[in-house]
Amino acid sequence: MSFFDKIFGGKQEESLSKSFWITIESEQDLEMAIKKSFEGKIAIFKHSTSCFISKTVLRNFEKEIEEAEEQGAVLYFLDLLAYRSISNKIAEDFAIRHESPQLIVIENGKAINDASHQDITLSQITS
């Protein structure tokens, strides 16, 4: 691992190994997540793997989740660089301006909360 990878994170994302994330890699995955929102809240974290700010926010959010007794939602992860068309579909379907990083909380098929950058906290889900 290079010096810069140690500071900024390498191409391999540690977050994908976190057991609480369900990755969205297709429109079918997105549809399944939306269906799951009728059983309880879901949250989609849209992450830019090339952005230092996004990586920092993701790490802070993951730490907050790991320290919480309950996360309050099923958590989905979207690499928006690899799956930009899905990210665009989310923005269009839920009428939410695209940002990165971004957390969108969905319940009963509707976005009930969204936050970006340093506003992303577990309280977005639990409130």
From TrEMBL:
This is Bacillithiol system redox-active protein YtxJ. The gene is ytxJ. The lineage of its organism: Bacteria, Pseudomonadati, Bacteroidota, Flavobacteriia, Flavobacteriales. It comes from the Bacteria. Gene3D superfamilies: Glutaredoxin (3.40.30.10). It holds the Pfam family BrxC. It comes from Chryseobacterium edaphi.
